[in-house]
Amino acid sequence: MRLRLLPVLGLLLGLVLPLGTATTATAVPTPPQIYGAWHCGDDYCTWTTERPVAEFDSKNHWLVDRGDGRPSVNLVVLSFVEPLKLLHKTNDAGTVDGVPRGMTPEIVDYFTSRGIRVQLSIGGITYTDEWDAALAENAHQLGLNAAETASRLGVGIEIDYEQNTNPNLTGLQSFIDAYRSVHPYDASGARHPARLTIDTAPGDRWLIDINRKATRDWLRTDTPVLDYANAMVPARQPSVSSAIANWQEHVDGKAQYAPPVPPLAPAKFTGGLYIGYGSRTLPECTDFAASLQNLTGDFVQNTAPNGAGTSSGMLGYMFWAAEKPSTRGLGTQPPHTCEGGVGAGAAHYGVPLPMPPLRQS
Fold first, then answer.
1. pLDDT tens, position by position, for the chain (361 residues)?
2. Burial profile 305-340: b = 16 or more Cβ within 10 angstroms, e = fewer
3. DSSP-derived pairing of the beta strands 276-277 and 316-322
4. What does the DSSP assignment read for 180-229?
5. The CA-based dihedral angle spanning residues 138, 143, 147, 149, taken in that order and rounded to the nearest 10 degrees
6. Cα-based distances in Å from 89 to 46, 85, 131, 253, 342
7. Which domains, from first to last, does the chain contain?
8. Residue 271 burial (CB < 10 Å; 0-12/13-18/19+)?
């Protein structure tokens, strides 16, 4: 009996709803606006050596040319700046004014001259203790120094503070306030140094305090402070279902936690995937058809808000990590470059270049 009523109900709904009313089945997907790579340089994420642009290009040309003359990504995040050295504006064998010697204006220009945005990532799991020490010593000055560096290089800044136990949220708030006193939030995205982002865990079950604070206070759509968050990679490359489950946790929040983690607007975060893991060449690097950025594409483009935000679809993808992220593994330098995975995905999704103003709700 119910089955027979369904066509009638559908007809009645069609008469009641105005023409053009969207449904979930007919919703237009939201293609990725962000399609980027964390970049570790050739020395395992320290960037302590200045490199000639020609030599850098020989290892990284796939990022700026996917095979048709267009870049494979629209964002590169140079990883990592050591927080305590940035606070002290350290000058040593590998650092100039607190910034690794390899993060030069010439390397930044290598990307920005091709329409690719650049950010510097402060921290990473290796520098968790240094984040703690810098925030305890002078969080406000650290924020001002980060803002000065962003101005000098014409880049944005990413906060990668991976303290899972009692993070210094008061200090992190002071860091953000100081940075924003120099570079206020800019919804247009036109001012590159105004781009300030944060990394969170793949889902809501690690870095809980940082994730809760960021979601509740800094990533709101009504009063935004940070531009967006990156849901980082898990310990190993996830399956399709586990990647989606992690990202859905951010969309849903964790009401059962005490205090709860509120839901995050899909328009306020990206999802992280590996492009290299150990000694294996991954489809994410070489075979788009079999890759997670393809197989999760429906979710990333269509996931609906669940308590925060109004637009469907996450902001896009971030890939860990270009060139040589660890002493083990293949990396993405020749012959293991990623035109066929990341690059083909950029073409498939029509990733915009340069990056457009990001969705705000």
1. 333 333 333 333 333 333 333 333 446 899 999 999 999 999 999 999 999 999 999 999 999 999 999 999 999 999 999 999 999 999 999 999 999 999 999 999 999 999 999 999 999 999 999 999 999 999 999 999 999 999 999 999 999 999 999 999 999 999 999 999 999 999 999 999 999 999 999 999 999 999 999 999 999 999 999 999 999 999 999 999 999 999 999 999 999 999 999 999 999 999 999 998 777 889 999 999 999 999 999 999 999 999 999 999 999 999 999 999 988 778 999 999 999 999 999 999 999 999 999 999 9
2. beebbeebbbbbbbbbbbbbbeeebbbbbeebbbbb
3. unpaired
4. HHHS---TT--SGGG-EEEEE-SSSSSSHHHHHHIIIIIS-SSS-SSS-E
5. 50
6. 16, 6, 14, 38, 36
7. 32-349 (3.20.20.80)
8. buried
Helices (H) and strands (E) in the chain, counts: 12, 12
Query: What's the pTM value of the predicted model, to 2 decimals?
Result: 0.92
Residue 69 CB: number of other CB atoms within 10 A? 8
Q: Is 359 helix (H, G, I), strand (E, B) or coil?
A: coil
Burial class of residue 54 (count of CB atoms within 10 Å of its CB; 0-12, 13-18, 19+): exposed
> Measured at the alpha carbon of residue 309, what is the angle toward residues 196 and 27, in degrees to the nearest 5?
120
Distance CA 304, CA 290 (A): 25
In which residue are the tokens 């990679």 written? 233
Strand ranges inside the chain, DSSP E: 34-39, 75-81, 95-96, 99-100, 117-123, 156-160, 196-200, 229-231, 269-274, 276-277, 280-281, 316-322
Both tokens of 217, joined, read 């206070």
Locate 257 and state its tokens.
Answer: 């936690």
The dihedral formed by the CA atoms of 333, 337, 342 and 343, expressed in degrees to the nearest 10: 120
- What is the Cα gyration radius of the chain? 21
